[in-house]
Amino acid sequence: MYDPIVVELVEPGSRPCFIGDRSSCRYCGTTVASDFGKKKNAHAYPVALGNKTLFSLDECKACNSVFSVYEDALTKAIGPFLTLGGVKGRSGVRQTGRSDGRSKIQHSVRDAGRHLHVTSPGTPQDLVGLDQATGLLCLEMPIEGDKFVPRYAYKALLKIALSLLPKGEIGNFRNALTCLASKDAVPHDGLLQVGFSYAYIGNAPPTLGGCLLRRIDDMSPAPHTVFLFMAGSVCFQIWVRSDDFDSLAPDDVRLSTQWTSQLPKPEGGYHPIQYSQPLQFDWFTLQSQLQPFEAFELIFNPDTTEANFRPVARQSEG
Ligand SMILES: [Zn+2]
């Protein structure tokens, strides 16, 4: 059982919010005033995932520069979700895949509506099928997408989690904080586990949310601190290892919290966003690899005209 110790939401219309102060960098410890950038230099959540209002004052320019490499990896790992979801980063909605590549997803706005253009290798016979039993049409879109470095993407999530830690907790996470300043350093031995789930594919809710959860029972063999990060239609969870309180937890513990967000509707009330059962990834490697989904399937019901996207994980992952 867990209690939330920090919850931080970013929504459309959120006012600028600043975490910490510039007396010292929470990662490398510098206290030199000129090492810090402008107030809005360091974002607590990546800009590429839609954050424009949550900033970290206690992140220096040098650390920010290293962290941008991690954030780039995380963005590439979920690139297809961002393109299909219409998530606006620093320069609009990103394209997935190279412009001259065989496989890509492009977003554009025409007549005030969103258009998606998907280019995939293969013939129509390979890509379209009819399920005789259900009458559902299935359109498969193979997506090569971009390559990413899994360890860097993991460290992006770790950095986001640590940026939210209350100041009084920092002393329990020295190893994790220190490893972030050195790009290739591994945060800890064993797996770098990521629980990944998604709500739906298509227009993503323009909301980001981070939640640090703390184990209630100190004698439990569960991880001491778990971090959940919702970014539009996807949700990550990682175990944020403390220096001293995680000796009882097994190395290969599964991160399987099934999460539902309640997003406020403009007309009042709440709209539930239910995320799937998490897939389990190990993002230890420094070897660049293709993003974790090899295809998206569009399931179309000709009777109701309802259509749903479903991601297909690469066989080597989860
Ligand atoms: Zn620093």
Please provide the count of β strands: 20
Q: In the residues, how many domains can be counted?
A: 1
Taken as a percent bin, the fraction of beta residues is 25-35%
Q: Give the N-terminus to C-terminus distance in angstroms.
A: 25 Å
Oligomer: single chain
Biggest β-sheet description: 6 strands, antiparallel
**What's the total helix number?**
5
- Could you spell the SSE succession in H and E letters? EEEHHEEEEHEEEHHEEEEEEEEEE
Return residue spans where pLDDT drops below 50 for at least 5 consecutive residues. Answer: none
Structural class: alpha+beta
Amount of helix: 10-25%
Mean pLDDT: 88
Which outline best applies?
globular
Which ligands occur here? zinc ion
What spatial order of strands do you see in the largest sheet? 1-12-13-14-11-17
Radius of gyration: 20 Å
Please name the defining characteristics of this protein:
binds zinc ion, 20 strands, six-stranded antiparallel sheet, alpha+beta, 318 residues
Secondary structure layout plus pairing:
Blueprint lengths: L1 E9 L6 E3 L34 E3 L4 H17 L1 H7 L2 E2 L2 E2 L10 E7 L2 E7 L4 H4 E3 L6 E6 L4 E2 L1 H15 L9 H8 L11 E6 L9 E8 L9 E7 L2 E6 L20 E5 L5 E5 L4 E4 L6 E2 L2 E8 L6 E7 L5
Parallel strand pairs: 2-3
Antiparallel strand pairs: 1-12, 4-5, 6-7, 8-9, 9-19, 10-18, 11-14, 11-17, 12-13, 13-14, 15-16, 19-20
Helix pairs in contact: 1-4
This protein binds zinc ion.
